[in-house]
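Task: sequence in, structure out. Protein: Cytochrome P450.
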Amino acid sequence: MPATLPRLSVGETVRVAVGVLAPMLAQGVIIRRPGVVSLADSLDTNRHACRILGDLRERYGAGPVLLRLPVRELAVVLDPDDVATLLDGSPRPFTPANREKVTALRHFEPMGVLISGEERRALRRPWNEDVLDHRESLHRLHDHIVAVVAEELEGLLPSDAPVLTWDRFTPVFWRIVRRVVLGDAARDDEAITDLMVALRAQANWAFLRPRSTRRLRELGRRLRTYVADADPQSIAGVVARTPGVPGTAELGQIPQWLFAFDAAGIATYRALALLTGHPAAMAEVRQEDLPTHRGLRPLARATVLESLRLWPTTLTILRDGVEETHWSGGTAAPGTGFAIISTFFHRDRSRLPWADEFEPAIWDDGRAEISRALVPFSAGPAQCPGRTLVLDVTSELLAGIVSQFDVAAAPPVRIRSERAMPRTLAHNRLRFHLARRAAG
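Result:
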């Protein structure tokens, strides 16, 4: 009988649980808890997590290692090649509908493709890709996205508040998201955003909190209204024009898109910090020639991707093995959970010379593609189908901010071009001085 994967000692398991898993769970895997995010920044939890996982890789070599958990087998991935194996192997032998993920996401998207079984996923995934233009460079609504972003940017700089904070940025960002996803009629529908916040806050507790069927019904009712009377220049309009086969559960896919935009906002705000610390890059973003690049905003897009590489918003990527699988260190039984700790691979100094640097060129020159453990939108058959839409919105927003405003980091300044990028960065502590740029 082949050997099973190496199992960590009790002491090593405790070290991983306390130094790697606990900080992620405490920050909130579905919606961030601001106070804990700030504490994680102060403690530099990402740096400690990377050190712990690096020590394990040095001791055990390639191949996942099993934690000594009382309730189920969980394997932590330590080798970049194994990241590619896991993500390329979805939905079989590694299902994205991981047990922990299903328990959490069912609170607000019980019919979402991410937690669908193999049969339902085969119906829902192609429809998601079609609506979201997954395989395109720009979403079909690109021109409308450009217009929405330009209109809403006016709200970033009230005359009495020249300092941009996270709390000031988020209302503007969500107005953009609601208009793009649900239509102009949803611009001021803060209630639907608050409803998603409440449901996601429950999801942070997974099986420890019962589902709120009342809130779920209310969310479904509101989404149904926007799709039934769809703004043609919105994703809801695309949904209305793209009927699925029975079992697609079209309305049931929309909560995941709204959920994904929360991480997109965090990434955009951190990307703004990257540009303030790298003035030459900011100047280049301002000069990007849209006709030449067919609307792509290449450096703005690469800056958002660098934000996601340096400070992943998906803290861990989860898969469950649906059958026995074989690795360099041994075998894993069916039902084994696998965890990919994103920051460990995105900031892997032993393999990435630029791990702690702002290096947007990697997204254009092939280095990111070769480094297959760089997965800001996951990878493989279960890669985020909203990648095109998210990058379209976020790159336009980032470019729009620096084009319309002079932006400088306000104390406490965390990003400087001559320093290595911090391993942990609390987005809610970033502040920027804004001043409107002269026309022309």
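The first helix runs from residue 10 to 27.
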